[in-house]
Specification:
Layout: H1 23-30, E1 41-43, E2 52-55, E3 61-69, H2 76-93, E4 97-106, H3 114-131, E5 134-141, E6 147-156, E7 172-175, H4 181-189, H5 195-206, H6 210-218, E8 223-226, H7 231-243, E9 246-250, H8 260-265, H9 271-280, E10 284-286, H10 292-298, E11 307-311, H11 313-324, E12 331-337, E13 344-347
Parallel strand pairs: 4-5, 9-13, 10-13
Antiparallel strand pairs: 1-2, 2-3, 3-6, 4-6, 7-11, 7-12, 8-11, 9-12
Length: 348
């Protein structure tokens, strides 16, 4: 696809999952809204999981999710690919397969050529096609800046649902993609990003998490989540809390995109990272020797990030070999421990 002459990054201050409402405010807001319960609802918002799961029968459950955001890159087609991959990721994080999608579009047709919207949708459809799902339609309204994403319905065996509450003491933690996309996206808007690291960030965001879902099901993983707007530290903390455990992260083992550490040291830290830190600061413990820069990297909001899975220690090495075929940055980054005073422990 030929790059568009229109630069989508000129329309936004916060792009991708960095545009999420602060987690602390969202949690407080949702706590006051009563929800109906049903015996067929296997997962709802109670544990802040990646998607909802509704059991249809003994062999099939539906996974339902939605995600959309403002541009995270300049090129419309690439933005469509990333936004769609991000939306599909929630299905994969729960061990499912996407089945149906609906496009969600907000677009200012009076100020941006409609060809740009066409390219966004074409990019998104490319990823939907790759996933094997079917596009059923969508909805478009006038709005500025543009925003795009998907509502997705997936399927999974109700006995093999993977949730963020399924981690067990003694397991290892594997992360499949590097972090730092939020920092590099911010640096790109400020003309500070180097071409190769930024392009690698784009490439990683476009990769589907479908193979990670297959590996998790093969090795009977029960606990996982994808890493998006709340940053690695935020999603680890949510997963640890939901599972009733403490998760220890060796931050020096966490794969970082090139230039990210340098940019953070120079002060290029997106506002979303500070909001994420505020959300979890009472639930994490940091070793004294952990640098502030590395701590902020752990809080960097990711877009279409990797899968964090809790896997039995005797299966971790072979699973890692399999994951590296598709996700070369995959690494064992920590352990699941007995519950302590803090949900998450960050060490150097």
């Amino acid at each position: 696809m030929k790059n568009s002459s229109f630069d989508l990054l000129t329309t936004v201050e916060y792009g991708g999952c960095s545009a999420k409402l602060p987690a602390k405010q969202l949690t407080e807001l949702l706590s006051s809204i009563p929800l109906l319960k049903n015996e067929n609802i296997l997962v709802d918002i109670e544990t802040h999981d990646d998607a909802g799961v509704y059991k249809l029968n003994e062999t099939t459950a539906l996974i339902v999710t939605t995600d959309f955001f403002p541009p995270v890159c300049s090129d419309p087609y690439t933005f469509g690919e990333i936004a769609a991959a991000n939306s599909l990721s929630d299905i994969y994080a729960m061990g499912g397969k996407p089945l149906l999608t609906l496009n969600i579009n907000m677009f200012p047709s009076k100020t941006i050529p409609l060809d740009v919207l066409r390219d966004i949708l074409a990019g998104g459809q490319n990823k939907v096609n790759e996933s094997g799902a079917f596009t059923m339609g969508g909805h478009t309204i006038e709005d500025n800046p543009p925003k795009y994403g998907l509502a997705v319905v997936g399927i999974v065996d109700p006995n093999r649902v993977i949730t963020n509450s399924g981690a067990k003491v003694g397991q290892k933690l594997i992360l499949t993609k590097p972090i730092g996309s939020g920092v590099l996206s911010a640096a790109q808007r400020m003309k500070l990003a180097k071409e190769e690291p930024y392009q690698e960030s784009i490439n990683q965001m476009k990769i589907l998490n479908n193979f990670a879902a297959d590996v998790m099901q093969k090795h009977d993983v029960k606990g996982a989540t994808d890493i998006t707007g709340f940053g690695l530290a935020g999603h680890v903390t949510k997963m640890a809390t939901a599972s009733g455990v403490t998760m220890s992260i060796n931050c020096s083992s966490v794969p970082l995109l090139d230039q990210v550490k340098e940019l953070i040291e120079e002060g290029c830290i997106p506002g979303a990272a500070f909001r994420n830190l505020e959300f979890i600061e009472n639930d994490i413990k940091c070793d004294d020797n952990l640098s502030v820069d590395l701590k902020m990297a752990m809080c960097d909001a990711q877009t279409s990030g990797g899968i964090l899975m809790a896997i039995d220690s005797d299966k971790a090495d072979i699973a890692l070999v399999e994951l590296k075929k598709y996700y070369p940055y995959s690494a064992i980054i920590g352990d699941v421990l007995e519950k302590q005073d803090s949900a998450t422990v960050l060490s150097n």
